[in-house]
């Protein structure tokens, strides 16, 4: 038996992004553990969690509401990536790769929202 969200490519991509962010935060300095480290990890995890929660057989309008939360979390990750880059915890090449992953998830979430309207 599987849950509806497990079949969604956007959910799978969001999990991949969360894993990438988790690996990134392991390189942050210790003084960021309760600040930027925690913030970016929670935001990244929130993307897939909101997709999952919203897909629970409720109305399309309700699912869209949760997808919009996921979208906001994705954008929050981008903001955190900019902070990490400015603080020199992240090289430009790695930033560009993660930024592109966030863009891909954003496009997929928007596509799913449009398909549900």
TrEMBL record:
InterPro entries in the cross-refs: 23S_rRNA-intervening_sequence, 23S_rRNA_IVS_sf
Coiled coil: none
Domain of life: Bacteria
Protein name (Swiss-Prot/TrEMBL): Four helix bundle protein
Species of origin: Pedobacter ureilyticus
């Amino acid at each position: 038996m599987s849950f509806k969200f497990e079949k969604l490519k956007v959910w799978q991509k969001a999990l991949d992004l969360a894993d990438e962010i988790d690996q990134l935060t392991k390189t942050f300095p210790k003084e960021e553990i309760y600040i930027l480290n925690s913030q970016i990890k929670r935001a990244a995890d929130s993307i897939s969690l909101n997709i999952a929660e919203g897909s629970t057989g409720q109305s399309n309008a309700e699912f869209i509401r949760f997808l919009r939360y996921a979208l906001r979390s994705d954008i929050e990750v981008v903001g955190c990536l900019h902070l990490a880059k400015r603080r020199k915890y992240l090289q430009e090449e790695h930033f560009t790769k993660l930024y592109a992953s966030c863009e891909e998830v954003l496009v997929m979430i928007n596509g799913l929202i449009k398909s549900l309207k």
